[in-house]
Amino acid sequence: MSNAAAAESFGQFEGTSGYIASRSLIDAVNCSLALERPLLVKGEPGTGKTLLAHHVAEGLGMEMDSWHIKSTSKAEDGLYVYDTVQRLNDARFGDGNVGDIRSYIRLGPLGRVFSSEKRQVLLIDEIDKADLEFPNDILRELDEMQFTVMETGDEVKAKQRPMVIITSNNEKELPDAFLRRCVFHFIEFPDVDQMRDIVDVHHPQVEKALLEQVLTKFYWLREQKELRKKPSTSELIDWITALLRAGVNPRQLEAELPFMGALLKNEQDTKVISQYLDRDGKLPTSLDELKGPGRR
Ligand SMILES: Nc1ncnc2c1ncn2[C@@H]1O[C@H](COP(=O)(O)OP(=O)(O)OP(=O)(O)O)[C@@H](O)[C@H]1O
Ligand SMILES: [Mg+2]
Prior knowledge:
Layout: H1 3-10, H2 23-35, E1 39-43, H3 49-60, E2 64-68, H4 75-79, E3 80-82, H5 84-93, E4 105-107, H6 109-115, E5 121-125, H7 134-144, E6 146-149, E7 154-157, E8 163-168, H8 176-180, E9 183-187, H9 192-202, H10 208-223, H11 233-246, H12 267-278
Parallel strand pairs: 1-8, 1-9, 2-5, 5-8
Antiparallel strand pairs: 3-4, 6-7
This protein binds adenosine-5'-triphosphate and magnesium ion.
């Protein structure tokens, strides 16, 4: 392959109109595609980790399958399950083809994307929810992209290596052996300009003056050290939805924070801000008054 052809095939993902991705995130997706290694995405809650997988699939014109990890998830669930209960029922009531074990093998998300004729995106969402051994347990299958169904001896081998996107909220450290096999990207919290673009995707009709007030209050809240949980992008989007539905005007936002429950999710945080406002604490009215990353 010539250098030019290689460069062209390297940059396959260019983003989508519904997802605002930084250059470094787009590069990480393309790096993961080129290396055929899973992309591990970390970042604060609500920074678009899960949504990314949907948009990578859309951008690449691929189907997506998902595996949402829970504390009880086991590696085997991703491969296949042997439905012994159904087989037992069929044996009791004389239904189904009990002699054919294959009809009781249900493929899990990994099994399904491996068997797909077309290359797919597989989202393994919130890998840190499972126990510590879980990432190690799926290492081999992710590396080799194949496994054996013990009950039938059938080999399930990826026809096309899927694009695997793994998300983590950092609840647990991931093992080094696992990390070595991934391409890593941390989604930085969006700056004001990126946030304007994100808001525009969801609320293109929002008036400029209202948006300025909303962003000023939002980034001011994120600067408050007393808060236990800073509001996230998804909470900002919800807050704007509430403000628009209620017809709140920019002036009303100068001295109050209506629908605070869309932004702050515990009573201590709500109390800190309410007490500040009750003491006649001033809210900034322009981004220039902020100190942190929200400042223009
Ligand atoms: N870059 C972005 N472009 C467009 N919308 C975004 C972006 N980032 C966040 N959002 C908005 O935030 C919402 C939450 O995103 P998502 O569920 O992907 O976050 P997450 O990082 O997976 O959060 P969690 O860690 O809580 O699962 C999305 O539905 C979307 O409305
Ligand atoms: Mg998520």
